[in-house]
Amino acid sequence: MRWGTICFDLDNTLFSHEEAFEKAIFFCFDSILKENKLTNNIKLNELFTAFKKYSDLYWDDYEKGVITPKEYRRRRFLTTTQQFQLPFNQNDADHFHEHYYSVVDDFSVPYPHLYSLISKLVETSIKIGIITNGNVDTQYNKIKKLGLNNWISDDYLFISGELGVAKPNREIFDMAKEKLQSNGDYLFIGDSWEHDVVGSMNAGWDSIFLNTRNEDPSSSHQPIEICSTLQDVANIIYKENNLRG
Ligand SMILES: [Mg+2]
């Protein structure tokens, strides 16, 4: 058996966060327009396209800490709604996002073959865990909604918001290694080149890049494989670990 310990990233690795985001934003726009009787002539797909554009546009400032999370959310909402001449204010922006965060996990759908892969790994002696960046409640809720807590112990969930250290910092991978010690090698699977591939490989793990968002590699690191679906990842693990798929 090649890998004794296998850890996964969460968003866009085990489920499509992009899809959950899109469905939840559609749902929340539909509901805020109806609440305010503003449904005439507004196309939800056009609203979503603008919202996505401004989410991406302001993301850099948010990530660099130039604007607070609240400012980021208000900006993307108000710039979008102003473009459509909708009479919303900052309170509406806050209300919209509260609604979004309360429903988004309901739209999380696991990638095909997630459960067959996880249950297969649990049947064997392979140790499995999740290493994810983000707020502890948000990430834990997603894990629960996906039912992954039925297979993976809370001790094997490494959430940056709780640990105070985030990917790509090697410390978070070292913490996971210490808790999930095994005789085999260590494998990490994720969809972010920088956070997941570079982070894990610099910490001495093998890595599979699950490129669900068509990202270009930004360094010369050589992961075990670049895959586009979780099924491809599963097949590599089955083959390398001599498991029957
Ligand atoms: Mg991810």
Give structural notes.
The structure is a single chain. By secondary structure, this protein is α/β, with parallel strands linked by helices. The protein has 2 domains: 3-15 and 111-240, Rossmann fold; 18-107, DNA polymerase, domain 1 (Orthogonal Bundle). It has 10 helices and 6 strands. It has helices spanning 17-35, 44-63, 69-83, 90-103, 114-123, 136-145, 160-163, 170-179, 193-202, 230-240, and strands at 3-8, 127-132, 157-159, 185-190, 206-210, 225-227. Strands 3-2-1-4-5-6 form a 6-stranded parallel β-sheet, sandwiched between helices. The chain is elongated and about 60 Å long. The two termini are 15 Å apart. The site of magnesium ion has 7 residues, from loops.
Quick structural summary:
By secondary structure, the protein is of the alpha/beta class. Helix content is 50%, strand content 12%. Strand 2 (127-132), helix 6 and strand 3 (157-159) form a beta-alpha-beta unit.
- The total domain count is 2
Q: What is the approximate shape?
A: elongated
Quaternary structure type: single chain
Structural class: alpha/beta
Question: In the CATH hierarchy, what is the superfamily of the largest domain?
Answer: HAD superfamily/HAD-like
State the major sheet.
Answer: 6 strands, parallel
Kindly state the number of beta strands. 6
DSSP summary: helix tally: 10
Which class of the largest domain in CATH terms? Alpha Beta
Strand order of the largest sheet: 3-2-1-4-5-6
Order of helices and strands: EHHHHHEHEHHEHEEH
- The overall pLDDT average reads 95
Low-confidence stretches: none
Please name the CATH topology of the largest domain: Rossmann fold
What ions, cofactors and ligands are bound?
A: magnesium ion
Amount of beta strand:
5-15%
Please identify, by name, the CATH architecture of the largest domain: 3-Layer(aba) Sandwich
**What's the alpha carbon Rg, rounded to whole Å?**
20 Å
